[in-house]
Write a structure and sequence with these properties.
The chain is mainly alpha-helical and 371 residues long. The protein is built from 14 helices and 4 strands. A two-stranded antiparallel sheet has the order 1-2. Strand 1 and strand 2 form a beta hairpin. The longest helix is centred in the last third of the chain and has 27 residues. The relative contact order is 0.21.
Length: 371
């Protein structure tokens, strides 16, 4: 197909409003409009914005960007090791850690925006009422995700957090069906069925509803769904800045209340675990949050979507390994059986996505500028 024909078809699809972005992947910053995406029941392809990029397709055997792999893998390794940092934040509780993370993430994002001359993009986002409302909603669900994640680590449920992020791709597929009207392929139905059985098995073994895993997967899935609605207008750094800015009043109010009640640890002295090192570790949660996001965005710009999707399994795998080896969490046979079923479901989903991608060559968008 000629480049002009492709551009004409792209223009029609954009005009008709039939193009959507892939669910759950932040869009990197660019001086040009971001590519328009369509998620076909888990297999992603994108059409090329008119007159902005070179028009060609990417073969399955196209060499991958080594820098993209390094950036993307580094982000997921950081997220996989994050429980180790959280355990060092004791005696701070989950509420304080989440509030401190929100505040210090905002500080780091503001510094990065200043260095990267991003305040004009920030102002444009704030002036757009719809975008601001969407980011307010995404901020609400991501703070729930952060809070439950910290609670899981502090209470010895790292394996439950790992399960939540393992099943997140499956939750994204389900959300695409419910909210975007996407149609499932047979393999995706099988994968979702296997995952449902796995959750029942794990819940039966625990003797309770696996709420931590489901809240983490559901909140992060909803976050991806909301971010999809603004992805063409907001880059990753600007989006996180606005989200943490909206969370800042609540976070600061919560810290003030905890301080008045004598429950805050930041800046306190005289008890074991408190001191300058503890304060710096709390500050580092903001650095880790913003830094890993930029690494992810840099990798996502340079890699095909399916590779980024495969890299996402690094973090829950590392968390699972830490839960078993470092934290020594009990792993009865029912939990092993449940995790094994989840892994089978992910293999089915991944192979189905690979086959779909092999049948449909993807257009490649040349980035306008590095992150």
């Amino acid at each position: 197909m000629s480049c002009e024909t492709r551009r004409a078809r792209s223009a029609r699809r954009v005009r008709d409003g039939t193009v959507a972005q892939p669910l759950g992947y932040p869009q990197p910053a660019t001086n040009h409009p971001a590519p328009n995406w369509h998620l076909d029941a888990g297999a992603a392809r994108h059409t090329v914005p008119v007159g902005r990029v070179r028009c060609h397709t990417q073969n399955v055997n196209t060499p991958l960007s080594s820098s993209g792999l390094a950036f993307g893998a580094s982000a997921y390794v950081i997220w996989g090791l994050f429980p180790l940092l959280l355990t060092e934040l004791a005696p701070a509780n989950a509420l304080e850690v989440t509030a401190q993370r929100s505040v210090w993430s905002l500080v780091v994002c503001a510094l990065l925006l200043t260095v990267m001359n991003g305040w004009q993009r920030m102002a444009a986002v704030v002036r757009n009422r719809r975008t601001l409302l969407m980011l307010g909603a995404s901020a609400s669900v991501i703070v729930i995700n952060w809070l439950v994640y910290v609670f899981a680590v502090e209470t010895g449920h790292v394996s439950s957090a790992s399960l939540g992020y393992y099943i997140n791709p499956l939750v994204l597929v389900a959300l695409g069906v419910v909210f975007l009207g996407e149609r499932l392929r047979r393999a995706q139905v099988v994968a979702l069925g296997i995952a449902l059985v796995a959750i029942v098995v794990i819940g039966a073994g625990l003797g309770e509803f696996p709420w931590i895993s489901l809240v983490l997967a559901g909140s992060f899935g909803c976050y991806g769904l909301l971010k999809k609605q603004v992805g063409r207008d907001v880059d990753a750094l600007t989006g996180l800045t606005v989200e943490t800015l909206l969370l800042a009043p609540v976070a600061l109010a919560g810290l003030a209340l905890m301080s008045n009640a004598g429950g805050i640890t930041f800046g306190q002295r005289g008890e074991p675990g408190l001191g300058l090192t503890h304060d710096l570790l709390l500050v580092s949660t903001g650095i880790v949050t913003a830094g890993s996001l930029l690494l992810f965005a840099a990798g996502a710009r340079r890699l095909p979507l399916f590779v980024t999707g495969l890299l996402q399994y690094i973090a829950p795998t590392m968390m699972f390994a830490l839960a078993v080896t470092y934290f020594g969490e009990p792993m009865p046979w029912t939990r092993w059986a449940g995790f094994s079923l989840v892994w089978v479901a992910l293999v089915v989903l991944t192979v189905d996505g690979w086959r779909s991608r092999a049948r449909k060559p993807q257009a490649v968008v040349q980035p306008a500028e590095p992150v």
